[in-house]
Design brief:
single chain; alpha+beta; Arylsulfatase, C-terminal domain; four-stranded antiparallel sheet; two-stranded antiparallel ribbon; 1 helix; globular; septation; SpoVG_sf; cell cycle; cell division
Length: 91
């Protein structure tokens, strides 16, 4: 599986949510609404989720192993940093 496209939509308001991302895999499958969040230990991603009847949030789509999750997270955060650098260069 290759990530063939990443679309980063930065969030302008202050807070922990920094961006919302869509990724395309193998130019055939897209996952929308992946969140880039600023946590106590730095940036991380949260997969798209919905609130269940019991009030808990459950991921709608997610990697099934930690290696794949790490690879996706690293790729997304790299693209997020590139988007920040482009904005800084334009300013």
């Amino acid at each position: 599986m290759q990530i063939t496209d990443v679309r980063v939509r930065k969030v302008a308001k202050e807070g922990k949510l920094k961006a919302v991302v869509s990724i395309t895999m193998d130019e055939e499958f897209v996952v929308h609404d992946i969140k880039v969040i600023e946590g106590e230990k730095g940036l991380f991603i949260a997969m798209p989720s919905k609130k269940a009847v019991d009030g808990e949030y459950r991921d709608i789509a997610h990697p099934i192993n930690s290696r794949t999750r790490e690879r996706i997270q690293n790729f997304i955060l790299e693209k997020y940093e590139e988007a920040l650098a482009e904005d800084a260069a334009e300013a």
